[in-house]
Write a structure and sequence with these properties.
The complex is a heterodimer of chains A (122) and B (111).
Chain A (H helix, E strand, L loop, with lengths): L2 E5 L2 E3 L5 E8 L6 E8 L5 E7 L6 E3 L7 E6 L4 E6 L8 E10 L9 E2 L3 E5 L2
Parallel strand pairs in A: 2-11
Antiparallel strand pairs in A: 1-3, 3-8, 4-5, 4-9, 5-6, 7-8, 9-10, 9-11
Chain B lengths: L8 E4 L5 E6 L11 E6 L6 E4 L13 E6 L2 E6 L8 E8 L6 E3 L3 E5 L1
Parallel strand pairs in B: 1-9
Antiparallel strand pairs in B: 2-6, 3-4, 3-7, 5-6, 7-8, 7-9
């Protein structure tokens, strides 16, 4: 069974940093591209970042580029999101979401974690 | 980059069919057959309903169907059921520097 479990959420002041983790199980982690998607309270979904299966390619939403860094450790079956220079508008539930396997082309998210709440407030 | 455009809300009666549109540009919806749709119940995790415009993952009811024409994709739900009441989001790959984009979401009410 595919499972994605986020951790590391919490409260931080504007300008601060947080690191989210996502522990994956039930599939060959290195064979899949991974993403972070967020949802501000009462708002819609926003794609945040993408990393390819072997971390060759990363991509970011304009809203977080230069402040957030996505990474992965395939030996530990883990995905990370380092969030620096946090702003109030970064307040959201952050979901770890599995993308396509590295052998196919496309764009969708077939499994999602339960989400980690990040609150940025003074 | 602006979100894909979806109607804020749609409604229908049990047994009816409804369609939710998702309008993008020639850089996203119009450029790729990589449109997906997600359903989200309040307080719950989004679930993939449709991918690659019209493909259904195992477990998705055949009451859900997807299509695309030009820069607009559509999700049709036939035989509406009360359990279909939820928020629906479209997403597309994009040729911009950011790889992906979501729609603003549509709240479906089953009257």
């Amino acid at each position: 069974e595919v499972q994605l479990v986020e951790s590391g959420g919490g409260s931080e002041q504007p300008g601060g940093s947080l690191r989210l983790s996502c522990a994956a199980s039930g599939f060959t982690f290195s064979d899949y591209n991974m993403n972070w998607v967020r949802q501000a309270p009462g708002k819609g979904l926003e794609w945040v970042a993408y990393i390819s299966g072997h971390a060759v390619t990363m991509s970011y939403a304009v809203s977080v580029k230069g402040r957030f860094t996505i990474s992965r450790d395939n030996a530990k079956n883990s995905l990370y999101l380092q969030m620096n220079s946090l702003r109030a508008e970064d307040t959201a539930v952050y979901y770890c979401a599995r993308g396509l396997d590295i052998f196919h082309s496309g764009w969708h998210f077939d499994y999602w974690g339960q989400g980690a709440l990040v609150t940025v407030s003074s | 980059q602006s979100a894909l455009t979806q109607p804020a809300s749609v409604s229908g009666s049990p047994g009816q069919s409804i369609t939710i549109s998702c309008t993008g540009t020639s850089s996203d919806v119009g450029a790729y057959n990589y449109v997906s749709w997600y359903r989200q119940y309040p307080g719950k995790v989004p679930k993939l309903l449709i991918y690659d415009v019209s493909r259904r993952p195992s477990g998705t009811s055949n009451r859900f169907s997807g299509s695309k024409s030009g820069n607009t994709a559509s999700l049709t739900i036939s035989g509406l059921q009360t359990e279909d009441e939820a928020d629906y989001y479209c997403s597309s790959h994009t040729s911009s520097s950011s790889l992906g984009i979501f729609g603003g979401g549509t709240k479906l009410t089953v009257l």
